[in-house]
Amino acid sequence: MPPTPATAIAVDDLVVDRGGQPVLRSVSTRIAAGSVTGLLGPSGSGKTTFIRAVVGTQKVRSGTVEVLGHPAGSKPLRSRVAYVTQDASIYRDLSVKANVAYFAALYGRSRSEAMAAIERVGMGDHAHNLAGNLSGGQKTRTSLACALVIEPEVLVLDEPTVGLDPVIREELWDQFRALAKQGATLLVSSHVMDEADRCDRLLLLREGRFIADDTPADLRAATGTANLEAAFLHLIRELEKAN
Amino acid sequence: MSLRITFITAGRILRQLLNDRRTMVLILAMPSLLIALISAIMDSSPQVFNSVGLILLAFFPFMMMFMITSITLLRERTGGTLERLMTTPTRKLDLVGGYAIAFGVAAASQTAIAATVAYAFLGLETAGPAWAVFLIAIAASLFGMALGLFVSAFATTEFQAIQFMPVFVVPQLLLCGLIWPRDQMAGWLQGVSDVLPVTYAVKALTEVQVNTETTAAMWGDLSIVAAAVLVATALGAATLRRRTN
């Protein structure tokens, strides 16, 4: 089935093996344009593999991943999709500003746009510090600025809020919401359940399969639980009973 | 390939080098100091220094480029920046071209300093022009870069990458004719020496050593080094994978 224009990311029967072990076992989903989708699951559940398949850096065994109507990772997508890896992918021997300005320049963006992105992640005071001397959270924010500067249509973030100050985390989520409001599509992985409520839609990944693909409200209603942590547990128990 | 992105990439790599002051000093000063050391060792035989010092002028940039390329590329691979770059409009050749320009500039600076020291202060003499020596040294350094790029794919840690030095660099040093004349080596070893690109850089230098004008033989040897650069670059670029496990 071809994706409708409102679908930003379409994944069909995606199977990925790593080192002979199945990591994703035939997952499918549709992610709507202009939404924030949370990809949740315990570590080792296949979140990063799924994300890498969406940005087109993961070898896949079978299935298709389409982003904005193009095969994941294909040339037309490289200026429209931004990827923030789990460990900050920045140059430690460059300053914050030089890092962001470099990624900005690859997309034909100016240095002032780079500075604006640095301000947006609250790193303005550290712009001239070497990235290697930053704390973990500051590195993550620098890495994020390298993605925000290109104003991507699709922004894929792998655990972007790990180890961040709650205030910064709050600000980042506000920014994610604002980006989605402007029409960007965000896919954000997390293993922190309290972030799930900020998403329009949730994908719960466990042992390489989606055990839920729903809005937070519907997920709570369907499982009869008050919070999402409990909903996740409820779903796992149901599955185990069924097996 | 995009020239714009290639130059942006070269600028970024040069900036990384410039930020690392200690590496800068080592790159720029070490070859001159080592050649000065060799010259002092061979104090009583200036003729021998003329050929050994000349070969080292091309060998040091080759070795340096191999080392810094294999280590910096390994960092790109293991630090996640390569994967990130592969999701940007950067193409493989832009990245390789960026490395070639940036480290080519570093090798040219290093060679310029070392050659100035060797010619002006250490009494190095060649019949042919110094610019030909410079050209050969740059070709050798680009071969070092391309080889380092290729080899970085087979190392998973910086520790391993350093261990590749004795595997890929030292044999070329031993067999290029520096420590023993090639025609006096065991026959099979001459065959091995014949397929090592550094051998041709040394042969080209020998031409400059004895002829006042550049010779067809020199240009022929230099083209072999240039061809080796292209082959090693193609092999190296092939190891940059957009999709990995």
UniProtKB/TrEMBL annotation, chain A:
PROSITE patterns: ABC_TRANSPORTER_2
One of the record's GO molecular function terms: ATP hydrolysis activity
Annotated ranges, domain ABC transporter: 9-232
InterPro entries: AAA+_ATPase, ABC_transporter-like_ATP-bd, P-loop_NTPase
Keywords: ATP-binding, Nucleotide-binding
Name the record gives this protein: Multidrug ABC transporter ATP-binding protein
Species the sequence originates in: Glycomyces algeriensis
Automatic annotation (TrEMBL), chain B:
Protein name per UniProt: Transport permease protein
Subcellular location(s) of the protein: Cell membrane
Gene Ontology terms, MF aspect: ABC-type transporter activity
TM region(s), chain numbering: 23-42, 54-74, 95-122, 128-154, 161-180, 222-240
Any one GO cellular component localisation term in the record: ATP-binding cassette (ABC) transporter complex
GO biological process: response to antibiotic
Membrane topology: Multi-pass membrane protein
Major location (coarse): membrane
Keywords from the UniProt entry: Antibiotic resistance, Cell membrane, Membrane, Transmembrane, Transmembrane helix, Transport
Pfam families registered for this protein in UniProt: ABC2_membrane
PROSITE patterns: ABC_TM2
Keyword hit for ATP-binding: no
Family: Belongs to the ABC-2 integral membrane protein family.
Organism of origin: Glycomyces algeriensis
